[in-house]
Specification:
The structure is a single chain. The chain is mostly helical and 195 residues long. It has a domain of 103 residues: Helicase, Ruva Protein, domain 3 (Orthogonal Bundle). The longest helix is centred in the middle third of the chain and has 32 residues. The radius of gyration is 30 Å and the shape is elongated. The protein starts with 42 loop residues before the first helix and ends in a 15-residue tail after the last helix.
């Protein structure tokens, strides 16, 4: 951030999963306008992430994305990405195996493997079996301890200022406080300096 000069239409955005390593000077007021804590996705968000990751991938009609989302509590977007990528790799592996087997059978029958017509993909869609196998090796990358640490950091940044305790006095309160000398707007009663 050193050496940054005033520029129009320049936004600096940073992200970290190690907030405890941020320099305290970086978190001081005036450095970053907004600090945003992005929690792990809830069930609805996980379903949206899975659907977005699979938008260009043919999926069998009996695969329930919402069910997968309900069973992945605590998973990050990257963890969900592992599941979808793993399912795709399993489908590709199955397709290759079936193609090799088909070619071997064709050769055994005396057919010409190189002169064959265009063959349909033996695995045209991701199935429940692909997702079940992908889920068997899936794991969360963010532990409960790390989540509590992130939430504590977010809370500490939120509660560093006056926050919810700051309130302008009402008209009646200001008049009553001005008589006692302890009012909100009473900054030592500097009016006497200008007499």
């Amino acid at each position: 951030m050193d050496g940054m000069t005033s520029k129009k239409n320049v936004f600096v955005i940073g992200a970290t999963n190690r907030p405890e390593q941020l320099d305290n000077a970086l978190c001081r007021p005036g450095r970053l306008d907004t600090l945003v804590y992005v929690p792990l996705p809830d069930e609805k968000s996980r379903a949206g992430i899975l659907k977005a990751q699979l938008r260009k991938t043919p999926v069998a009609d009996d695969v329930n994305i919402e069910f997968i989302a309900s069973k992945t509590h605590g998973f990050s977007g990257a963890d969900l990405g592992f599941i979808t990528q793993r399912a795709v790799k399993l489908a590709i592996k199955e397709s290759i195996s079936l193609d090799i087997e088909r070619r071997k059978n064709l050769e055994a029958e005396g057919g010409d493997v190189d002169m064959e017509d265009e063959v349909e993909d033996p695995v045209p869609r991701l199935t429940k079996a692909h997702f079940e196998e992908a889920m068997a090796s899936a794991r969360r990358s963010v532990t409960d301890v790390e989540i509590r640490r992130y939430e504590a950091f977010a809370q500490s940044m939120k509660s560093a200022g006056p926050g919810a305790f700051f309130k302008f006095p009402e008209a009646g309160e200001a008049a009553a406080d001005s008589g006692s000398g302890a009012g909100f707007g009473d900054a030592g009663n500097d009016d006497s300096l200008y007499d």
